[in-house]
Amino acid sequence: MARLDAKGRGFFLGQRRDQLGARLLMILTSIRLCQDYNADFRFNWFPPGADAPTLNNPGELFSKAFIDQHFISTEEMDGLEEKTEPIWKFLKDKSPKALEQHLAAGGHVLLDEGFDIIAFPWEDTEELRARFPDLVSQIEFSPTVAGRIAEIDTALRDTRSSVAYHIRRGDILNADPWMHKQ
Question: Against a cut of 0.90, is the pTM above it?
Answer without folding.
Answer: no
